[in-house]
């Protein structure tokens, strides 16, 4: 199972990298979304994909699932949700102000002399 | 009070929330922001004294015992950095009264500043690696808001790049924590240190060490990862630039210091040598940038990079004295960079340009500004009675003692070139024929000078009173060079 997960994460990272290297701002934002999905799946996998029961004391089971990775993912998802929302609003506002979403045209050379 | 160490996080946090409600009333929100940041200074000074007397303070949040819950830890290093942060927050707040337009202040400017302080102080205080990530995000989110605050074209454009870089580095941070968790199965920093020393030398731990170096290096702007900084820091106005330059990169540097003295001690030949080499290249690149540009903002921004390199070289040498030097230089650099950015903010306000070739003869008309800048410049380069000297001395001395001749030599050379780069501003900008500038009458120079003068005075006292300050710094370095003090304080074995 871990092997499959590794491939899934790899494909997510790969597509994220491809998208973030493109010129269009919107694609870049989608890329950051995929990147954080990959990172979250990685935490899940790294915590171990055990098939145990819920980690409660009165459950008499031989194996428990580690709850910490899930707590971490939840925190990370909320944060990346907030950042993505901010990024989208900023992208829209920049498009209005600067009139382009092409990163090639957003280089800027102020003060480089 | 056992909850004492959380107060420097709570006060700016509650102030930030309060300011959201009073944002439309500018003069009231100025008062609230000013007073609360002053209270934060007092509380953090008391915290420093408490750590000095009673040793490391820890707080297990909501009574989950370490290592199971989140633990906040205030050792001397974090307490001192919290104090410095609150001083810089206070000066930047009072400087903003006269530089930021009312329209901008109304749009939650002081709230964002306070939340930034929450993130920075939290990152210095936390003893949990994932909580460090959360506080990083808190400070980054506020820094996005502050960077784009005002909404000029250049700010919008640079914010896009800044956010992209930081989103990627945050994802890498999560990935690194995931790897670390899979190896050690814990998130408490003291507990991680114990587990890692049980594991001993292993390939995966070295990989994690390098990943952490990449993550924190992106924040702290070390050699191959500093590319985003000169562009992004160029965009915002002076008080925000001062906050960023003094605090944000230093959070990265602090995190490298913490992880490289607490976690990765088994394969020093590789990890610390890598850190040392990168630190030296960082110094060289920073110096080249500082000399090459004739734009005052860029010169000081590249000087941040130089300082980061110098501090990390001290960490890479890893002797108690060199760590003392690094801690001392870190605090010095936070204060003096804030002062310099606030000063060049005044210069830019007077002249309306940051191009050095269009500025001359300022000292005739603004002697106070000129001499404050002169002292700040000398302190930056580390001229003896001022604050940079003792830190740099210890770092260079230990570098030679540990036979890192190249590194120590380059650090020594860099001080000369740093002095040259900053004196270039002084000679071109302050000497020469005085000229009239368009909007200079409207600039309240005397009122603006209050904040940088406070910082410069602190810097002078910090240097002249080394005798008094050094015991505090040595206590901070002692915890760094002997992790078992930290571990015992947190896990209470």
TrEMBL record, chain A:
Keywords: Cell membrane, Membrane, Transmembrane, Transmembrane helix
Main location: membrane
InterPro entries: CPA3_antiporter_subunitC, NUOK/Mnh_C1-like
Location relative to the cell: Cell membrane
Membrane topology: Multi-pass membrane protein
One of the Pfam families matching this protein, by short name: Oxidored_q2
Membrane-crossing residue ranges in chain numbering: 6-21, 28-48, 68-92
Keyword Nucleotidyltransferase in record: no
Record-linked Gene3D superfamilies: 1.10.287.3510
Domain of life: Bacteria
NCBIfam families membership: PRK08600.1, PRK09094.1, PRK12660.1
Assigned protein family: Belongs to the CPA3 antiporters (TC 2.A.63) subunit C family.
Protein name: Na(+)/H(+) antiporter subunit C
Species the sequence originates in: Cytobacillus citreus
Lineage of source species: Bacteria, Bacillati, Bacillota, Bacilli, Bacillales
UniProtKB/TrEMBL annotation, chain B:
Pfam families in the record: Proton_antipo_M
Keywords assigned: Antiport, Cell membrane, Membrane, Transmembrane, Transmembrane helix, Transport
Membrane spanning residue stretches: 6-23, 30-48, 68-95, 107-124, 130-150, 162-184, 204-228, 240-261, 273-293, 300-318, 338-356, 368-386, 406-427, 448-465
Localization per Swiss-Prot or TrEMBL: Cell membrane; Membrane
UniProt cross-references to InterPro entries, sorted A to Z: CPA3_Na-H_Antiporter_D, NADH_UbQ_OxRdtase, ND/Mrp_TM
Keyword NADP part of the UniProt annotation: no
Chief place of localization: membrane
Residue ranges annotated for the NADH:quinone oxidoreductase/Mrp antiporter transmembrane domain, each copy included: 128-417
Family, similarity comment: Belongs to the CPA3 antiporters (TC 2.A.63) subunit D family.
Stated name of the protein: Na+/H+ antiporter subunit D
Species name: Cytobacillus citreus
């Amino acid at each position: 199972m871990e092997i499959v997960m590794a491939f899934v994460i790899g494909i997510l990272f790969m597509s994220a990298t491809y998208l973030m290297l493109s010129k269009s701002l919107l694609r870049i934002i989608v890329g950051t979304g995929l990147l954080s999905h990959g990172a979250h799946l990685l935490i899940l996998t790294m915590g171990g994909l055990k098939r145990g029961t819920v980690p409660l004391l009165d459950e008499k089971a031989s194996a428990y699932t580690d709850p910490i990775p899930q707590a971490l993912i939840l925190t990370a998802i909320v944060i990346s949700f907030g950042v993505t929302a901010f990024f989208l609003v900023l992208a829209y506002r920049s498009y209005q102000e600067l009139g382009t979403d092409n990163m090639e045209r957003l280089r800027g050379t102020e003060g480089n002399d | 009070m056992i909850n004492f160490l959380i107060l420097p996080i709570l006060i700016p946090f509650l102030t930030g929330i309060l300011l959201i409600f009073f944002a439309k009333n500018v003069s009231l929100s100025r008062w609230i922001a000013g007073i609360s940041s002053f209270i934060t200074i007092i509380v953090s000074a008391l915290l420093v004294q408490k750590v000095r007397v009673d040793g490391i303070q820890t707080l297990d949040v909501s009574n989950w015992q370490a290592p199971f819950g989140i633990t906040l830890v205030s050792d001397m290093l974090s307490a001192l950095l919290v104090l410095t942060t609150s001083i810089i927050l206070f000066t930047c707040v009072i400087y903003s009264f006269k530089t930021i337009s009312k329209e901008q202040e109304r749009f939650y400017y002081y709230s964002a500043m306070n939340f930034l302080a929450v993130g920075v102080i939290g990152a210095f205080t936390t003893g949990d690696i994932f909580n460090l990530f959360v506080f990083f995000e808190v400070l980054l989110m506020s820094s996005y808001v502050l960077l784009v605050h005002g909404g000029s074209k250049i700010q919008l454009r640079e914010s896009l790049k800044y956010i992209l870089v930081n989103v990627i580095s945050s994802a890498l941070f999560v990935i690194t924590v995931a790897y670390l968790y899979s190896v050690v199965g814990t998130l408490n920093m003291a507990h991680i240190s114990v587990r890692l020393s049980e594991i001993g030398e292993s390939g995966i731990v070295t990989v994690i060490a390098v990943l952490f170096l990449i993550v924190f290096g992106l924040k702290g702007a070390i050699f191959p990862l500093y590319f985003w900084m000169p562009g992004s820091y160029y965009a915002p106005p002076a008080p925000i630039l001062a906050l960023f330059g003094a605090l944000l990169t230093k959070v990265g540097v602090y995190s490298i210091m913490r992880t490289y003295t607490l976690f990765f001690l088994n394969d020093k030949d590789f990890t610390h040598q890598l850190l040392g080499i990168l630190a030296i290249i960082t110094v060289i690149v920073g110096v080249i940038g500082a000399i090459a540009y004739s734009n005052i903002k860029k010169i000081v921004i590249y000087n941040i990079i130089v300082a980061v390199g110098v501090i990390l070289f001290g960490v890479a040498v890893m002797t108690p004295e060199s760590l003392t030097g690094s801690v001392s230089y870190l605090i010095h650099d936070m204060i003096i960079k804030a002062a310099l950015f606030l000063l060049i903010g005044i210069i830019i306000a007077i002249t309306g340009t940051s191009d050095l070739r269009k500025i001359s003869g300022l000292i005739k008309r603004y002697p106070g500004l000129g001499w404050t800048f002169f002292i700040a410049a000398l302190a930056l380069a580390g001229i003896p009675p001022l604050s940079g000297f003792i830190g740099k001395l210890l770092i260079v001395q230990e570098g030679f003692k540990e036979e890192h001749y190249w590194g120590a030599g380059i650090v020594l050379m860099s001080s000369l070139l740093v002095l040259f780069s900053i004196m270039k501003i002084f000679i071109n900008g302050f000497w020469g024929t005085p000229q009239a500038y368009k909007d200079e009458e409207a600039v309240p120079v005397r009122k603006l000078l209050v904040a940088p003068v406070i910082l410069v005075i602190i810097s002078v006292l910090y240097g002249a009173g080394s005798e008094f300050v050094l015991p505090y710094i040595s206590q901070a370095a002692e915890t760094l060079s002997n992790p078992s003090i930290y571990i015992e304080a947190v896990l209470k074995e």
